[in-house]
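At this stage, I wrote out one protein, both as residues and as discrete backbone shape codes, and that material follows here.
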Amino acid sequence: MVVKKAFFCEPTKAQITRFTQQQAERDLVDRILSLPEDQYLLVTRPLVPHDYESSWHFLRHGARVGLGLGESLEVTARTVAKERRLPVPVDFRIAAFNGLQQAKGLYSGYEYTPNTIRPYNHRDTRVRRVSLVECLEGARLYAYTHQVVMASIDVEHYTEAKAVEKDGAVFHVHVPSRGKGAPRYRFNITSVPIIDNAQKWGIAWGAASEGHDCLRGMYMGLRYASKEDSQVFNWCAHEIAAYIAMMGEMSKKGNRVPLQMSQIALPTQLTVDFYKRLCDSVLIHDEELQSKNKLRVLNKAEQEILLWGLVHKRGHHPTFFADGNVSKYDWNLRHMAME
């Protein structure tokens, strides 16, 4: 088992249960947001719907929030028409996040299809899927490289100028692992719009990576293990952290096109604080466990569901419209005392 670096360590069940317990089965978002520092919340009901075989089955096959589709597309069209401008990716996220239909937030992520937007000239038409948990973990990994000495994400732009205008730029990145002693990940971020032209819309919807695979890719079906998986690109935390770092490097050079056209939802400090509570102050009762008290920390599917619950309750801007420098967000956790 890989041992996490200190920045990514989270309290165990034993550490959490040393504090005062609250219990709840409803109004979970509000209860979590208001948790005192010396207490934790015990969720007394299942969060993942019973019609899924497992949490990973939910993450792979659960309902997703579609960008640029149906009513959210109509809302986006009305908004940009009123403001007399063309839509950018954040417009689609605003409309979709603010128009969530499932009050319980039972979503496994958001997704978009590159060829929804014209012009789109790439052969890669895989559906792009993004988990909110991976957005948070990507933001945490990015913050780590700015808050810990000797940690960094290296970004190198090497696309020939002739190809950039039509296909976007390619960036070679080196991203640290969250595990102690683990090697850095090296891969490419592709289809990045860096020129303010008519092609930037199609380029942005095709952004992906090449040469990267991590444990999340394996858990999600090795990405290419089946016909369905071969038609899907799942953004992971390493790729998201790299993309944030790339946007930062380009912004320093005065080029904000990658940021303007980004498909990645950047969390606010409010959402980071909420996610931290999911990691350090919430346990769930699980009848399938063999342990006497049947308590455990939340898994990724349960965290995803609760994050969408936060979005449903608070809306897009308070949750995923970054309100500061993501590199400086506070990631300190509660209940990390020695066992």
Notes: Residues 221-225 have pLDDT under 50 and may be disordered. Residues 132-147 form the longest helix (16 residues). Residues 15 and 339 are 6 Å apart (CA to CA).
